Amino acid sequence: MRRCAGTADIHHGDHAMNGPRRIQQGVSLIEVLVALFVLAFGMLGIAGMQTMAMKANQSAFERNAVVISANSIAERMRSNQAAARTGGYNRTMPTGACTAPSGTDRVSVDTSRWLDELNRNFGTTACGAINCAGTPAFCRITVRWDDSRVANGGAAQTFEVDVRI
């Protein structure tokens, strides 16, 4: 092998031009901190999604209970068709507190029990209205309740169902 004058051998070993080469072992503290930050941020996201899911689940549960409650008064009205068809169950949605009728007749007792059920299940702001008209009677049953726990949900939710008596 020939050599040119003025050239040196290039040596690849422990003593390179920039000093000895070191092999990194383990991870640095900064890498650990970055990994912990990413993990903590991800866990916060999961916790937030879980909270939103629980709120939405509660809202869906309440909406289902409202449907059952509306069907409850509809069945009571079907069992007393004469009163329902003449508007005996009719009541408007109050703007203030929801007061139940105090009479002892069947319509007053049915309505009072229904409104008490709404207050017990959905709080004191829950209320209901009924409007029956026509022959055969078509009745619109309306239930209003507070659903402000859910993000992006309005404070007052309304459910309406139309039934034929």
From TrEMBL:
Keywords: Membrane, Transmembrane, Transmembrane helix. The keyword Transmembrane helix applies. Signal peptide: none annotated. InterPro entries: N_methyl_site, Pilus_4_PilV. The chain crosses the membrane at residues 27-47. It comes from the Bacteria. Residues 84-105 are annotated as: Disordered. This is Pre-pilin leader sequence. It comes from Methyloversatilis universalis (strain ATCC BAA-1314 / DSM 25237 / JCM 13912 / CCUG 52030 / FAM5).
